[in-house]
């Protein structure tokens, strides 16, 4: 969903927000991310328009930063909310200089660090998740025998 709040009069440059080396001109929220938003973040603001408006405001205010310095898929909003995003180039859309504009695809909302302490170190959190899922599968396979 493109930013509807920005009213630009007599200008030819498309609206975008700089995030690292990407120029974000559009936000897409997956169904999985919408479900995670309602489960983990807010149960009362779960329409796509409200989530996109929230994300646009955070992008415009520079409140969205990379979680890790050298990776560009996990982002931190207001030093609390952990978001996984992917980027793809928008076809036939460039800025005035000719640089490509990007679409930010929100894959999922992992949650808030203030509520889920495991999110403070994502690498150990993911290894814990893999281990717990593997142990669950092992337990289930033992029951079937």
UniProtKB/TrEMBL annotation:
Organism: Paenibacillus pectinilyticus
Protein name stated in the entry: Periplasmic protein
């Amino acid at each position: 969903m493109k930013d509807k709040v920005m009213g630009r009069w007599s200008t030819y440059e498309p609206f975008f927000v700089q995030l690292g080396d990407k120029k974000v001109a559009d936000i897409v929220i997956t169904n999985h991310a919408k479900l995670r938003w309602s489960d983990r973040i807010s149960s009362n603001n779960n329409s796509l328009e409200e989530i996109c408006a929230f994300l646009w405001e955070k992008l415009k205010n520079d409140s969205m930063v990379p979680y890790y310095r050298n990776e560009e898929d996990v982002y931190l909003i207001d030093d609390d909310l952990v978001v996984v995003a992917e980027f793809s180039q928008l076809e036939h859309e460039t800025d005035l200089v000719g640089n490509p504009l990007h679409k930010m695809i929100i894959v999922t909302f992992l949650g808030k660090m203030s509520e889920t302490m495991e999110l403070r170190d994502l690498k150990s959190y993911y290894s814990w998740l893999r281990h717990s899922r593997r142990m669950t599968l092992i337990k289930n396979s033992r029951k079937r025998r």
